Amino acid sequence: MASASEEFRLVSPGFDHAGRFPRKYTIEGQGAAKNLSPPLEWYNLPEGTKSLALVVQYIDAPDPGSPIVPWVVWVVADIPPTLTGLPEGVSGKCEELGGDYSQIREGKNDDKVIGWRVPKLPSPGHRLEFRLFALDANLNLGNKPTKDKLLEAVESHNLAEAVLIAKF
């Protein structure tokens, strides 16, 4: 069994020590510091990792018809294992960054747009769940992967999963 220091893990230097994320990562940010995807870093990829995939959901999203319905914030597939993280504001800029970033495919969120989008959060304490999957293959889901297609494909290729919970 791997020790905690060898465990596949996901962190964000953009969140404070208590895991709270600033408004600039939401629709409530100001000007250019609005709806930025947060910086992410991962450590200890499992041996045999060929690609990574990421699903970010607002897990406390209220719905009048249900108690809680997770809201898809970001779907990312085909992240090369040569990358050790994603810089702040990378969403929507992978092509222009070039290199390994150009292999990344962003999918539609629940606002029906490609890329990172956090809805208006009603009050502090709401949570975002970041799930990063280390995969033994490239998923090749096309240019606009959906959460459902990604999670279905991940089932047969998942080597490990790292979860990060952030609070607003």
TrEMBL record:
Pfam families: PBP. CDD domains: PEBP_bact_arch. It comes from the Eukaryota. Gene3D superfamilies: PEBP-like. This is PEBP family protein. It comes from Cuscuta campestris.
